[in-house]
Each structure stands twice: as structure tokens, then as C-alpha cells.
Amino acid sequence: MRALFPILAALLAFSGSLRAQVVVKSGGAAASDGYYAARDYSALLSAKIFSFTPLANHFKLYQGYVKNTNLLIGRLKELEAAGATSTQEYSELKRRFGWEFNGMRLHELYFANLGPAVLPEGSGLKAALAAQYGSFEAWRTAFLAMTQVRGNGWAALVYDRQASTFHNIWINEHDGGVPAGAEFVLVMDLFEHAYMPEFQLDKARYAQVFWDAINWPEAEKRFLGK
Ligand SMILES: [Fe+2]
After folding, report:
1. Which listed site, 59, 72, 131, 205, has its alpha carbon 20 to 30 Å from 17?
2. Spacing, Cα 104 to ligand 1 middle (Å)
3. Whole-angstrom distance, CA of residue 26 vs CA of residue 219
């Protein structure tokens, strides 16, 4: 219990600041002042990929990550200005930042790589995946198998540009297992909220619907570093 006290104290202080300070802007994501704005993905509601209510609720969850990332930034600035960087609150909130930030950014990558569109003719991404995995289908099989891992997290295809190598990765929660410096090409939300409301326990069905709804030109653009 004693070990939990610093964490509880930090979270209580943070929830207090949550009531006191809400910094969420409208419009595109802009961080010129150090804060973030929630992006608008409402066009996906008419794309008929997922049902309206589960997807609309998913947008609200994403907006919560944007809000809490901004709250963390604000509170950490306050603590730094007050010279309170040796406090337990500062220490615990610093540890929380990557979780909130990745919760925001991974959702943005996920929503942006939805919206069914085929791979462009002569796709460099498809050719590179086929070269590394033996065939595009072999990579597809490996990626989809990974999506069935138990637990909450994310499945992603990342590209290690330094070594010109892809990796299919599982991210635990939002921040466990993210390879430093790797670039996200394709991201799939595998928290229960992403599929349970519509597909219940049928995660394989969710994976198939996701696969059929991938915005491949967006993935191609990320692979090319554009
Ligand atoms: Fe999500």
C-alpha cells in the first residue's frame, strides 16, 4: 500500500487539475504552443466500415487522450515553473506522458489508415513487403495472426528505415514495446473498445473488416516517408 501512495497521490492531483484545466482546441492538430488539438475523423462515419455508435464513441475516447495529453503538458509546465521537479507528482506524471501521448497518436494513425482504398499500381510498399517476407500474402498472414494476440494493445507494421526492414509489432497498452525510431506504416487498434461493441468476442471478424477497410495509399505514403 505504501508503494502505491506516490502513484495515488499523483493521480489524485492530476484528476484535480483535470477539472480545473481543459485545453482542447478545434481544427487540425497543431502543437505550435505545445498543446494538441483533436483531429476530425467524422468522415469515417459514412464510410460504412463500423457501425455509427461504436465509431462515434471511439472518437470520444480518442478525444479523451488528446485532452489528457494537454492536461499533462500543462501540469508538468506548472510543476517545472514552481521548481517542483523533485516531487512524487512530477515523477509519476512524467512516467504517464508516453501512455497518454501514444494513446492520442496511435488513434490518429489508426483512423487515418481506415477508408477502403487499394494499393497504388506498382506499389513500392507491396514490393518491399514481398521481398522481405517471400510474398505479400505471407506478410498478410503473419500480420493477421498477430492481431489475435490476447490482451489490450495495438498491432502495427513498422518500418526501420535505418535497416530498411519491416517489423510486425504488438504494443502492450499504448507504450509497451514501441521500437525506438521505427516508423508506423499500418496501425490497428486492438483494445476491446475497438471491437467488442460491434463484434463481441469475434476478434477474427474484426480483423477481417479492418483488413478490407485499409487505406493503402496512406500506408504507402508513410512507407515512402511522405
Ligand atoms: Fe481505441
Report:
1. 59
2. 9
3. 26
* C-alpha 3 to ligand 1 mean position (Å): 30
Delimit the domains of the chain by residue range: 1-13+50-112, 124-223
Instruction: Please state, in angstroms and rounded to a whole number, the distance separating the CA atoms of residues 48 and 22.
Output: 32
**Pairwise CA distance, residues 192 & 201, whole Å:** 9
- Ligand 1: distance of its center to the CA of 195 in Å? 9
Distance between Cα 122 and ligand 1 center (Å): 32
- Say how many Å lie between the CA of residue 73 and the centre of ligand 1: 21
Q: Which CATH superfamily is domain 124-223 in?
A: Iron/manganese superoxide dismutase, C-terminal domain (3.55.40.20)
User: In this predicted model, which residue has the larger pLDDT, 79 or 26?
Assistant: 79
Residue 79 has pLDDT above 80, yes or no: yes
What pLDDT sits at residue 57? 96
Q: What does pTM read for this prediction?
A: 0.86
